[in-house]
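A further point concerns the way the authors explain their paired sequence and structure data. Since the whole study asks how a given chain folds, the encoding of that fold should be made plain. A single example would do more here than another paragraph of explanation. An entry of this sort, consisting of the sequence and the corresponding backbone structure tokens, reads as follows:

_____
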Amino acid sequence: MQTLTRPEGTEPGDLNVSRRLLGGLFFAGYAAAAVSAEAAPIKTDDKDLVTGVEMIPSFDRAIPAYVARPKGRGAFPAVLVVSEVFGIHEYIRDTCRRLAKAGYVAIAPDFFVRHGDPAPVTDFAVIRKIVGDTTDAETEGDINATVAWLNGQRFVDPERKAITGFCWGGAVVWTACARKRDFRCGVAWYGRLARPPAGSFLGEPDRTWPLETIGRLKCPVLGLYAGKDQGIPLKDVEAAREILVRTKKTGSDIIVYPDAQHGFHADYRATYDAAAAQDGWSRMMLYFAQNGLPARRR
């Protein structure tokens, strides 16, 4: 197994044990590069839900998006779910079903579809190529398209939308909430904050990073971070806090779980931390409610 300890992939020195895939995926449908032999992923059924893949017309092509929503008459609040570097694998789909069980329309677009599917890949070099080839402009265009699609659905309340994301998606949450007024709030799970060094993965000069945009937030964001994250130093977290205070983004906040590692919500990884994950989820639900998106029970 591999222990994913950084926002955009594991460095060679971070490997926990062997590189072999231990006889294939332990949990069909989970990210091949990060699945853990010891993990016991949460499995959420689709009883009383409508689930499936929708094709979302984006700026250059239609993109697939996994959708989970409550059965019954809307309109429900909506949450746009931004994946990790592994794309729309079973953990992201299950997260959408959890949100749907709570009364939300959850949609997870495949932002990487133009360049490949990272979920079944075991080589991080290949995953980084897929993710690195996905530009900021493509991601922003797909977010715009997903928002437009949600606004056109009778089962969605177009005035009540939020965005959440994990790892790569956590950084996207910060930047999306600085660019768009479509969301009531965002929740960013351990997304990279600072620009990577030039020449490194995602270090291209035309990419935008949260520390460059937090001061322009157009809606409040809750950041959930790990004290033992090897890729997001606490100095970056403190820099983000300082910007929030200096720019008077009073509705935003950052929570740090001191003993947690990167990916602490990902229940298929070795770094999963049940206490931190459950507390973060509860805080996210409360944050949605405080910002006008209480769960819509049938």
About this structure: Confidence is low (pLDDT under 50) at residues 10-27. DSSP finds seven helices and eight strands in the chain. The radius of gyration is 18 Å.
